[in-house]
Amino acid sequence: MSDLSVSPVHTDPTLDGDHERMTHIVLEGWKPEEGDFVAAGPTVVEGLVNGTAVKALCGKVWVPARDPKRYPLCPTCKEVAQSMGWKVPAF
Predict the structure, then answer these.
(1) Cβ-count burial of 23 within 10 angstroms (0-12 exposed, 13-18 middle, 19+ buried)?
(2) What pLDDT does residue 73 have?
(3) pTM of the prediction?
(4) I want to staple 64 with a disulfide (CB 3.0 to 4.6 A). Which of 47, 73, 74, 78 is the partner?
């Protein structure tokens, strides 16, 4: 099971305006059956603290800054997470 984190979005002109108003899932890394945790990129916390961009499962790239509980979950992120057998956070 992978560690998942959810974070809000900023405008990306390559996606429609609805992506601005959704909560996205960011894969921060995974732990193999044997071995140490493997980072997949910047974490949501890094993004919030350092202004580092993160990438969602749907491909959205942004710098987190909003409360994800205020927005509905991105259906593409949800579909990707569920197809991998991951539990999707409830909002």
Answers:
(1) buried
(2) 93
(3) 0.70
(4) 47
12 phi, psi to nearest 5 deg: -130, 115
Q: Which helix (H) or strand (E) holds 35?
A: none
Helix (H, G, I), strand (E, B) or coil at 73: strand
The answer to whether residue 38 is domain-embedded is yes
Residue 65 near residue 71, CB atoms below 8 Å: no
Altogether, the residues listed in the chain come to a count of: 91
Mean pLDDT of 38-43: 86
In 11-80, beta strands by DSSP E:
24-30, 38-39, 54-55, 61-62
Whether 30 is covered by a domain: the verdict is yes
Paired tokens of 55: 């990438």
Domain containing 13: what range?
3-77
pLDDT averaged over every residue in the chain? 80
